[in-house]
Amino acid sequence: MPGARSIVIVGLPFTRTIMDTVAAPALADNYQSGTERAAGDRRHTDSPPAGAERFYHGPENEMLTHEISQIACKLSRKLTLDGDRSFHLPDTRTEPRFKTAPFYFLPAMYVAGMGQLGMNCSIINPKYGPRFRVIAVTTDLELPAGMPMEEMKCPDCTTCKECTRRCPSRAIDGRYRKNVFKCSGYGCSSTCLSV
Questions:
Q1: What are the residues whose beta carbons fall under 8 Å from the beta carbon of 162, sequence distance 6 or more?
Q2: What's the number of domains the chain is made of?
Q3: What is the spatial distance between Cα 32 and Cα 133, in angstroms, rounded to a whole number?
Q4: Which of 72, 110, 151, 173 has fewest C-beta within 10 Å?
Q5: 3-class SS at 154?
Q6: Any domain includes 168
Q7: Considering the entire predicted model, what is its pTM?
């Protein structure tokens, strides 16, 4: 947006409440305990945890995307009614031929103080890990900037490397880099978000 001075990042975590809302409670219990066991199971460290793809592709994330889109739309409308220009950047998909997107959330999330870069090449939040969805609103209103987390709040991330070991496409190199062509070519298992 020409003249933009601020970007507001809106996010919601992928929590147990989301599971209970989307799935029947009995199924949510089974799914949750199964994924927790799979993520902690050291016997199969070379394969993705069962159900990992739900962190990215399941109906829970569709619901999160809908909810944060509603929040961003309302925020954009409020800014506009208050006389400021704003633009709600809708949920977008990566351009498959070039692996590009109209907006890169990761740097904005870092600068806003939402977390730190993890070995899985995602922002790791101290409370929710990498399991949250975000969306952006740009505005010409000058807002105070967030503060990046300087102190490592998730120190285990540098030594755990479960995301690297379990990535079925071997797209994560364990040095804070991901080969997006390998990742998307495999079909995104979301293992890096589930461990």
A1: 39, 45, 195
A2: 1
A3: 19
A4: 151
A5: coil
A6: yes
A7: 0.74
For residue 133, what are the domain limits?
6-194
- What are 90-102's pLDDT values in tens digits? 776 666 666 666 7
> pLDDT of 105-149, one tens digit each?
888 999 999 999 888 888 988 888 888 888 999 999 999 988 988
How is 80-104 classified by DSSP, letter by letter?
A: HHTT--EEEE-----BTTTTB-SS-
Query: CA 147 to CA 114: how far, in whole Å?
Result: 9
The reported pLDDT for the residue numbered 187 is 66
Helices (H), 47-194: 54-57, 59-81, 105-111, 157-160, 162-166, 180-186, 191-194
Q: How buried is 165 (Cβ within 10 angstroms: 0-12 exposed, 13-18 middle, 19+ buried)?
A: middle
